[in-house]
Amino acid sequence: MRSGVATAFVPLFAYKTFAQGILRGAGEIRKLSLVRPDTGERIDVIYWIDGNYIAEAIEELSYFCRDRETNTVHSIDTRVIDIAAATYHLLDPEEPYTLNRGFVSDPRQVTNGENPEAKPNGSFHANGTALDVSLNSRSVSQISRAAISCKAGGVGSYSKQNYVHIDCNEIREWGS
Questions:
Q1: Per DSSP, what are the bridge partners of residue 44?
Q2: pLDDT digits over 23-82, tens only?
């Protein structure tokens, strides 16, 4: 654990989603590769082996997805990690995801008049249930279609901003 960094970890979920079904075909190992252009960090992590999440790997992913403004860490829901990994597996790119946004400690950071994920009690990012990602080799449309095909949560396409929002909440889609 990193010293001086506030953390809040919730139990790892064993929630069944279509995304997990897709990943079953990927073998006994699940992994995720991400880069953060704002910090220059990169992570390649195996987070699931033989039917079990690896707590240390989930903690590393949660740290990687921390709030970039406050450096606050919050546990990222394993369901959204699975959906992101399933989407990545379907696209089969040669590069890691770019993490555009992970956890945010202040939901107003993602709340604007056009944002359908904004809720009165905060955004899904503030709950650790959403990631915004992109790939240089794939369009927003390609990424969002792959995520939608997982039938496992919300998918928002932000073509002008060049990223896709993926969350593990109710199934829905939106965007341009």
A1: 33
A2: 655 557 899 999 999 899 999 999 999 889 999 999 999 999 999 889 999 999 999 999
- Yes or no: say if 174 and 159 are a contact pair by the CB < 8 Å rule: no
Domain 18-175 fold: Muramoyl-pentapeptide Carboxypeptidase; domain 2 (3.30.1380)
The yes-or-no verdict on residue 9 having pLDDT over 60 is no
Rounded distance, CA 100 to CA 64, Å? 12
Q: Mention every residue, 6+ apart, whose C-beta is less than 8 A from residue 51.
A: 28
Of 104, 99, 108, 107, which Cα lies nearest the Cα of 81?
99
Predicted pLDDT at 91: 95
pTM: 0.82
DSSP-based three-state secondary structure for 151: coil
DSSP per-residue letters across 14-80: ----HHHHHHHTT-SEEEEEEEETTTTEEEEEEEEETTEE-HHHHHHHHHHTS-TTT----PPPHHH
- Which residues does residue 97 pair with via DSSP β-bridges, in sequence order? 34
Domain assignments of the chain as residue spans, ordered by start: 18-175
Cα 74 from Cα 92, distance rounded (Å): 28
Contacts of 117 (CB under 8 A, 6+ apart): 110, 123, 124, 125, 130, 154, 156, 165, 167
